[in-house]
């Protein structure tokens, strides 16, 4: 049975979308841009980063576009001073939470967090930096996990579980103590369920997951390889 | 026309921001006609002067001496600019922040030294517990991130200020 079509407005423009789509999916299908960090084409949405927050008329609160399903007659605003303010706060919180030292990062110049900060005009943050002591897992022969650079978007968790089918990555603890862990908190190099496919590395928006052997600015993620794989397998996006 | 008094300061950083400032090529000629460089690593003055119009600070605040300096500079400066990632975010100098100072000094000057082992204590300022961004100690008027900030951006901001414009609004910014 074909999916029912419903009408919504995005930034005033009337668009036709499929029932069951999220605001983000409907926007993308109609060429409308909503900034995102944790979203990755083809993976389930988790609403982790709060960058895609949008306004929905009739409600005071903001909604994450990636997890909010569309409804008939919904009117969505994707850009406003209020949204920019909240998106900036979200990125600033990510920047202060861990040690994002762009100058010495393999992903400098190719980092989605760095690019998002620039796009939002963030030249400094208003809060005090946390400077936590975090570990780096170098035990895998080909890849590195650097918790200093992780924004807990969980793209690695989702790509490993949903696309590779290994579900080697998981999230442990809560709030500021939350960490990405490999196989029941075992060292990555000892994780027997890891297929070493590298999808997590290329799905990672920052330098948190990287290939070994690259210097500053040299780690360029092949994110298109991950998303094109999803499409070639015919997943519903 | 009265020249605008500009100072530059080098705290805990690599001097790369100063290199980027100097990298302005021919722009230095026209800028030199409009400003007086009254203090900094590029000139000879020993004491930070009174009534400075614009001060560009490179580097994180990392020692007691840095802290004393920035407090004096803030009092004597009209517009204070955080120049580069170290001054804006802490950047590389702040990578020591999760290591206790004594442990850090021991590792470098004793365990890591081949000769003359011993933590220097005379004629060097005491390190603060952490190297932190400038704005956590004094009010900063403009932040110019980048490692280093591009020369054109620095010159652009100085020229904007000379023209009486506020450069903060649509400044193109990038960390790293």
Q: Could you describe the 3D structure shown?
A:
- The complex is a heterodimer of chains A (237) and B (176).
- Chain A is 24% helix and 16% strand.
- With 237 residues, chain A is an alpha+beta fold.
- Chain A has a 5-stranded mixed β-sheet with strand order 2-1-5-3-4, with helices on both faces. In chain A, strands 6-7-10 form a 3-stranded antiparallel β-sheet.
- Chain B has helices at 16-22, 27-34, 64-76, 85-89, 101-111, 151-162; strands at 4-10, 35-39, 52-58, 61-63, 77-83, 127-132, 142-144.
- The model of chain B has no long low-confidence stretch (mean pLDDT 94).
- Chain B is elongated and about 55 Å long.
- Chain B is built from 6 helices and 7 strands, in the order E-H-H-E-E-E-H-E-H-H-E-E-H.
- Chain B has one domain (4-96, 129-162): 3-Layer(aba) Sandwich (Rossmann fold).
- Chain B has a 5-stranded parallel β-sheet. A two-stranded antiparallel sheet of chain B has the order 4-6.
Features:
heterodimer, A: 237 residues, alpha+beta, Ubiquitin-like (UB roll), Alpha-Beta Plaits, 2 domains, five-stranded mixed β-sheet, three-stranded antiparallel β-sheet, 10 strands, 24% helix, B: 176 residues, alpha/beta, Rossmann fold, five-stranded parallel β-sheet, two-stranded antiparallel ribbon, 6 helices, 7 strands, 22% strand, elongated
